[in-house]
């Protein structure tokens, strides 16, 4: 508390009265605009225009302080967008959580999904199974090959190859997912349907393969960064002891960069989990739990993301929409925890490599 | 442990070893390559070479590799082949070979024990005949463990070779004399899918030859640390090459098939200057060309070749809108966090939030736009402005992260020098820090735009309109965005009816060409032809952004290095 008081006094002493007026007025106008926007009033433009005018005035009289206020506003807006997204998801998903209880997440007997009835069942279990299956397959593709690719790029490839392949991998990471989906639908799904006689043209296996291929460049890119961040002195030390380059890679570089590499895999898993378009066009959109649950060629095909992409554009409010938001919440929570976990291990690694400083 | 006197002998032994391993390695590399080509349908599985069907050639190759590996391993163990074998082949080899053993055991269990799923009459359950599933899983795990121990426990020259040989030799033999032939099928029982020999065998040959190549590379250096290094380099090199091949093939398919669509009706008539860009009505000087797939609209009565022009414009407008939202906010927030706040709790919190925002799945942004922005900005309907905002929010974390990194990396000496001259903090930021950080910011923004331009999922929820619009405008009202601004004295003073319309963009156009079920003009393009064309245009646009971003990074980095 005293700290806050001290800060306020400090601010008032260091800031010109005119600048304080501009800050207070700007904050008031912003709150007014945000409040009106929140309530869905079209009048939010009025205080917004007022802010523009105020900024113009402030820019001429107290440029430094106005700029400071504006940057604070930008930072606050960024954080509030995040909070708004979380808050809105939770608010809209509440109905579904109350309606279904635990069965929203854990339900073994159908019917699982009965839109648009407000009283019907809406269980995410088959979607969770679908997400788990595609993610596991994608990880089995992306993690080993991705790590191998990163080791190749950072430890083995001659400089000339590296200069070409590294940007190439980043280019591949940028191919839109719908493109992968289109190729997957036209070529991969057809292939499995024709050769392996899958029950429908779509299967978790084909979609998982495609998603894995898609998250591969992400894993390579991040893992390569981690491996390259291992100080040269550590490797030289090992080489000076007479170990081979591969022994150095295996016993010094990879263990030192282990957290970074696992962060890369976690990011790849997160990417695979949140992947929407490739899965949407490649899956059959029928909901159910395969028997046995690991049958990746079954006729079922729906994940947390595809159900939103497929049904949200036509959902007519009520329990159905709320259930879709619940799917969004589950998705968001899992991907967010992966992201935070990855950041934590990465932070630990760089602290470890950086030594004391 | 050889001494100097041994070198002559060692060289002789090495020659002998190379004489046996190198041709076998060449054989296994060739098998890996051909197996890859057959697996990806580039070579037919019934082709014949040297008078033999390709599958039999594969079988012979795997058999030869297996025998050579086993023979050389035993020869090394009894001392006939000098080597620097270690005590054990290592855990990684054990895990790799062990997991293959587990797979083989699983296949054997389902084939021999007849694990099969049957429908239980009168109820809704499926049950398994044969052995129960958990037992099957347990057995295959057991097989894996046995394989693992067989690799890890004996001396390296036996552990690295015999368990591998035990996979290669039976595969080669059964493929040569039956029953593992092209018409053979594998029905695992737990799924209705049938694995045909024509597809499974090339895959098996590919994997086993990769394994063989790895092991032979180890043998060729006489095991030990140098042997394992050579083996690892071969294993990783070959698998990376195979994967790059897959990704390259993917791009090749899009370019190859898309180009046929893209060039339909295209002509280049010299240098007259009649290629007029629609909407802006600007005649490109010198060019007199015709590229209907790019410059036409997809629908409409008088369109001879349907095209994707409205979708291209839509993508451009979405990107512009997203930039207008994200760039000022992101750079502003980055300045605040680096220049005005001490590093601590708050910056850490914002960092976690932005990284979380960056990894949030795009569909979640779409949900947010649908629930929060659509009712407030466009009366609950999908619209351009909501899509721009949503994409802007998606771009925001990247702009913030890269700008922050760029600003942090500006040396403090710059700031100190400026402050020493009596320049205020904001003027320092404006005229010293920002210009120095600009290259990093620009690169980050361009790379982010590449991702935004290809984003589809949120567009389905907040933007998507008709599948095949018949006007050149990106929005379905048919009016241009710039012409639709109207001003009034009543709040909200500025309105733009075009921004509140739903419309189309390149990735959305590709999605609709998958889901619409019919091509805009079936007599010109089939559905998938239109899709391939759209995919190519989208790829070109996105790759264009990425190429510019990567190139600008290389350019700025080089410039910084020379300074």
What this model shows, in words?
The complex is a heterodimer of chains A (357) and B (563). With 357 residues, chain A is mainly α. Chain A folds into two domains: 2-98, no CATH class; 125-354, MetI-like (MetI-like fold), CATH 1.10.3720. Helices cover 76% and strands 0% of the residues of chain A. Chain A has 14 helices and no strands. The two termini of chain A are 31 Å apart. The model of chain A has no long low-confidence stretch (mean pLDDT 87). Chain B has three domains: 20-85 and 175-182 and 196-258, no CATH class; 263-292, no CATH class; 309-562, Orthogonal Bundle (MetI-like fold). Chain B is 65% helix and 5% strand. Chain B is built from 18 helices and twelve strands. A two-stranded antiparallel ribbon of chain B has the order 1-2. In chain B, α10 (309-340) crosses α13 and α10 packs across α17 (506-515). The longest helix of chain B has 39 residues, at 224-262. Classes of the chains: A mainly alpha (357), B mainly alpha (563). The interface between A and B is large, with 102 and 112 residues.
């Amino acid at each position: 508390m005293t700290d806050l008081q001290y800060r306020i006094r400090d601010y008032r002493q260091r800031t010109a009265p005119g600048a304080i007026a501009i800050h207070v007025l700007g904050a008031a106008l912003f709150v007014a605009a945000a409040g009106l926007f929140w309530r869905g009033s079209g009048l939010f433009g009025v205080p917004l225009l007022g802010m523009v005018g105020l900024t113009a005035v402030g820019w001429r009289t107290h440029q430094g302080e106005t700029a400071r206020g504006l940057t604070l506003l930008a930072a606050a807006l960024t954080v509030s967008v995040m909070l708004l997204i979380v808050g809105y998801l939770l608010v809209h998903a509440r109905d579904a959580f109350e309606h279904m209880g635990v069965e929203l997440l854990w339900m073994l007997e159908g019917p699982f999904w009965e839109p648009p009835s407000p009283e019907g069942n809406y269980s995410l279990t088959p979607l969770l199974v679908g997400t788990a299956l595609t993610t596991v397959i994608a990880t089995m593709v992306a993690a080993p090959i991705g790590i191998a690719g990163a080791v190749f790029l950072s430890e083995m490839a001659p400089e000339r190859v590296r200069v070409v392949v590294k940007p190439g991998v980043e280019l591949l990471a940028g191919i839109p997912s719908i493109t992968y989906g289109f190729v997957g639908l036209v070529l991969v799904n057809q292939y499995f349907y024709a050769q392996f006689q899958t029950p429908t043209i779509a299967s978790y296996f084909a979609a998982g393969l495609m998603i894995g291929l898609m998250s591969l460049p992400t894993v390579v890119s991040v893992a390569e960064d981690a491996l390259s961040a291992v100080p040269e002195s550590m490797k030289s030390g090992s080489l000076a002891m007479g170990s081979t380059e591969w022994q150095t890679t295996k016993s010094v570089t990879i263990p030192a960069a282990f957290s970074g590499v696992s962060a890369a895999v976690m990011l790849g898993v997160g990417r695979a989990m949140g992947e929407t378009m490739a899965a949407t066009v490649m899956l059959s959109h029928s909901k159910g739990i395969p028997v046995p649950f690991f049958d990746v060629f079954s006729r079922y095909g729906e994940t947390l993301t595809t159900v939103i992409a497929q049904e949200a554009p036509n959902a007519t409010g009520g329990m159905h929409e709320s259930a879709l938001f619940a799917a969004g919440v589950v998705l968001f929570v899992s991907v967010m925890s992966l992201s935070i976990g990855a950041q934590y291990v990465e932070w630990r690694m760089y602290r470890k490599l950086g030594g004391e400083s | 442990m050889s001494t100097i006197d041994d070198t002559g002998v060692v060289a002789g032994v090495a020659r002998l070893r190379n004489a046996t391993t190198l041709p076998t390695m060449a054989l296994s590399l060739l098998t890996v390559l051909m197996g890859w080509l057959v697996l990806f349908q580039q070579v037919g599985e019934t082709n014949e070479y040297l008078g033999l069907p390709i599958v039999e050639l594969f079988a012979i190759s795997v058999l030869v590799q297996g025998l050579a590996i086993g023979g050389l391993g035993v020869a090394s163990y009894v001392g006939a082949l000098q080597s620097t074998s270690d005590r054990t082949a290592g855990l990684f080899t054990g895990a790799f070979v062990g997991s293959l053993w587990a797979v083989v055991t699983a296949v054997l269990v389902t084939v021999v024990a007849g694990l099969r799923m049957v429908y239980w009459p009168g109820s809704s359950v499926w049950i398994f005949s044969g052995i129960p599933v958990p037992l099957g899983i347990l057995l295959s795990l057991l097989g894996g463990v046995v394989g693992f121990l067989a690799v890890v426990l004996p001396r390296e020259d036996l552990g690295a070779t015999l368990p591998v040989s035990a996979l290669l030799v039976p595969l080669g033999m059964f493929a040569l004399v039956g029953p593992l032939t092209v018409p053979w099928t594998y029905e695992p029982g737990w799924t209705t899918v049938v694995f045909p020999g024509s597809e499974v065998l090339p895959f098996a040959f590919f994997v086993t030859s990769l394994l063989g190549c790895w092991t032979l590379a180890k043998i060729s250096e006489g095991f030990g640390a140098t042997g394992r290094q050579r083996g690892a380099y071969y294993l990783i090199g070959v698998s990376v090459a195979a994967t790059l091949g897959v990704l390259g093939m993917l791009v090749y398919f899009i370019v190859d098939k898309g180009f046929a669509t893209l060039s339909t009706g295209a002509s280049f008539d010299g240098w007259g200057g009649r290629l007029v860009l629609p909407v802006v009505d600007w005649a490109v000087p010198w060019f007199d060309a015709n590229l209907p797939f790019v410059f036409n609209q997809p629908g409409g009565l008088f369109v001879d070749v349907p095209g994707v022009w409205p979708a291209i414009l839509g993508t451009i407008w979405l990107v512009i809108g997203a930039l207008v939202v994200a760039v000022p906010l992101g750079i502003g927030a980055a300045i605040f966090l680096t220049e005005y706040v001490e590093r601590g709790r708050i910056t850490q919190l914002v960092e976690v939030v932005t990284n979380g925002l960056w990894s949030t799945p795009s569909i979640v942004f779409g949900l947010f736009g649908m629930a929060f922005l659509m009712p407030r900005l466009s009366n609950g309907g999908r619209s351009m402005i909501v899509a721009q905002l949503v994409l802007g929010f998606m771009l925001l974390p990247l702009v913030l992260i890269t700008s922050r990194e760029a600003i942090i990396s500006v040396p403090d000496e710059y700031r100190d020098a400026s402050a020493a001259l009596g320049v205020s903090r904001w003027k320092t930021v404006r005229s010293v820090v920002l210009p120095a950080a600009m290259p990093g910011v620009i690169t980050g923004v361009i790379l982010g735009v590449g991702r935004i331009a290809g984003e589809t999922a949120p567009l389905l929820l907040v933007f998507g309109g008709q599948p095949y619009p018949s006007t050149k405008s990106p929005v379905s009202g048919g009016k241009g965005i710039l012409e639709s601004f109207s001003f009034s004295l009543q709040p909200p003073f500025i309105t733009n009816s075009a921004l509140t319309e739903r419309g189309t963009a390149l990735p959305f156009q590709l999605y609709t060409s998958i889901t619409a079920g019919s091509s805009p003009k079936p007599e010109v393009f089939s559905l998938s032809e239109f899709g391939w064309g759209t995919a190519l245009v989208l790829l070109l646009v996105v790759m264009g952004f990425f190429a510019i971003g990567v190139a600008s990074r290389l350019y700025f980095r080089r410039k910084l290095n020379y300074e």
